[in-house]
Design a protein that fits this description.
The protein is an alpha+beta fold. The protein has one domain. 30% of the residues lie in helices and 22% in strands. The chain contains four helices and five strands; from the N terminus they run E-E-E-H-H-E-E-H-H. The chain has a three-stranded antiparallel β-sheet with strand order 1-2-3. Strand 4 and strand 5 form a beta hairpin. It is globular, with a radius of gyration of 18 Å.
């Protein structure tokens, strides 16, 4: 009988992060789009950036769900997983986001990510507050 395992390509090399890097704390709100009665949850995350100050290289869960709860552990693990993914060459946030489920928000009618997975990736895809200033500085030095 043949081996049922199919080899999968490896991600590119993992980048080495400097010991100190710029980061941004964010307070985001989440309410499942399909449930009009769901309470809004505030989630706190911190996003770390590469030397350029613009490319996210990690995300950490800080607070939002009851400490020690399954949900807090799940969100923390998702953040670690995303951090490892995006620290490998060839893995992009956009590529991760493309396949995620989106649902029509029952309150607004707009299309939203169906879970906190999309919410967290969307935060990684959102530029930091200082992005415009860094871009101006980079343009002036060229």
């Amino acid at each position: 009988m043949s081996d049922p395992k199919v080899p999968t390509p490896n991600a590119g090399d993992r980048i080495i992060l400097p010991n100190r890097r710029r980061s941004e704390a964010r307070k985001i709100t989440w309410r499942p789009p399909h449930n009009v009665d769901a309470p809004e949850t505030t989630i706190h995350v911190t996003i770390g950036y590469a030397d350029d100050g613009l490319r996210p290289v990690e995300i950490f869960y800080d607070a939002g769900y009851r400490s020690g709860s399954d949900r807090a552990t799940e969100i923390a693990d998702l953040c670690i997983t995303f951090s490892v993914f995006i620290q490998h060459e060839g893995v992009t946030i956009d590529s991760l986001m493309r396949s995620l489920a989106q649902e029509k928000d029952a309150r607004s009618g707009s299309m939203e990510f169906g879970s906190t997975v999309g919410l967290l990736l969307d935060q990684l895809n959102t530029p930091p507050a200082w992005a415009e200033e860094v871009s101006k500085h980079m343009g002036a030095s060229q």
